[in-house]
Amino acid sequence: MFGRGGIVQSVTRRSEADKQLILDFAVTAMEELIPMAQLNEPLWIQDFNSSTEILNEMEYLRLFPRGVGQKPPGLTSEASRHTAVVVMNQANLVETLMDVNQWCTMFSSIVSRAVTLEAYSTGVAGNYDGSFQVMSAEFQVPTPLVPIRESLFVRYCKQQQDAMWAVVDFPLDDLRPGPPVQCRRRPSGCLIQEMPNGCSKVTWVEHVEADHWDVHDLYKPLVNSGLAFSAKRWVSTLERQCERLASVMSSNYPSGSTGIITPEGKKSLLKLADRMLANFCGNVTASPTHQWTTLSSRGAEVCVMVRQIVSNAGGILVVAASLWLPIQPKRVFDYLRDGSTRTETQNAIGNQNNNLILQECCTDRTGSYVIYAPVNVVSMNLILTGGDPNYVVIMPSGFAILPGGPQSRSEELNPQNEATPNEQGHVSESDNNGSLMTAAFQMHVPSMPNSPLSLISTETVNNLIAMTVGKIKAALSSGNRAP
């Protein structure tokens, strides 16, 4: 989607009549989002077995006949909603959603890239009331085995009665020339209600139609369940990020081992950690711009893939291995975030003695991340005193842990402290389906543009993955816990 100049021009170079038509569509989408967020049965039916809500599609079509039309052939419907109270005031949350840079930073584990193509209206009275803009975005799952989802849409923000705000996205994919889209978001977005103590109550709706055919078998249960791109994932990420911001910027934030962290240093450190997470997630996704080479794939056991990035400093080898573990995600996360379990991996990827290790650990109900990168002492001292983190070179490695796994692996489970997929092989909140883990590493390698991977690099990659995966599986499968 990015770089398609003709598509961008066809969307943005429109007459005033066309822009009014798009605004009319935006209003219709808003009229759909609000009841989708507020109504219960018969529109949403509670599934007590999985503790989730299921959209009644016949009732949906009856209530919203002016929508984007019937579901295209070959696409699967994914509809979900989730509500939570987050530690961010209403005004800041609305700004975060309407500013594309803040939005990408807040949801960097979900949004790999995004751009505002044209802002038709920036709102009135100094806020975002009535603002609507054309945007393009790529949505990701942190693994090379799930293709990214491209979307062209209009985002519309409107203040409602009783001091509630609503932000809705509706698709423009049908306006693009070319083959049928593989993903279409029906009106999706959130309602934001102001709460005491600087908090906001957020109700999020995600309604997507997507093609699942090119999803790897390892991740099909997660994607087929709808959890991979669900409203729960968006809201859980928002909760985690808001709590992180509030914690890091508090006055009692601890000092680092290299000295006192200034208030400016806290902000710089937070920005650098944000870059680490965004870089890690962006580098392991199955984007069209990422040409991956499969080194080994043993069905649903483990898939090892590599790709090369050519830079002025030489080549960067990105290695990613995705596999299923019959272990609950929390146990995997607790084990990996312990620094002592990471020593051998750091040595394998060539960590220099003069470097410190900056580690970012974060977890929520839909996924966990343990990301780390070597940073030299001089750069770290500059960061802790408020230096610009954009000048710090980082090559983050780490782990992404998601819930769920394929039914076919159930016979390998141990009876103690292990997880079992449900009978249908789908992922649900009430089931302990094990963990889908992606381990990714970056390293410098001598390279020339378009050159194949060297035998030395390939051997290094296989040894690194075998050692890392073997160590994790042995430690966790035997019932050992992180010290």
From TrEMBL:
> In this protein, which residues make up the domain named START?
15-247
Where composition is biased (Polar residues), the residues are 413-433
Q: Where is this region: Disordered?
A: 405-433
Localization in the cell? Nucleus
Q: Which UniProt keywords apply?
A: Coiled coil, DNA-binding, Homeobox, Nucleus, Transcription, Transcription regulation
Q: What is its main location?
A: nucleus
Quick check: keyword Coiled coil in the entry? yes
Gene Ontology cellular component terms for the protein in this record: nucleus
What terms describe the molecular function in GO for this protein? Answer: DNA binding; lipid binding
Q: Does the keyword Ribonucleoprotein apply?
A: no
Please provide an example of a Pfam family that matches this protein in its UniProt record: START
Q: Which family does it belong to?
A: Belongs to the HD-ZIP homeobox family. Class IV subfamily.
Concerning PANTHER family, the annotation shows: HOMEOBOX-LEUCINE ZIPPER PROTEIN MERISTEM L1
Q: What is this protein called?
A: Homeobox-leucine zipper protein ANTHOCYANINLESS 2
- The species this protein was found in: Rhynchospora pubera
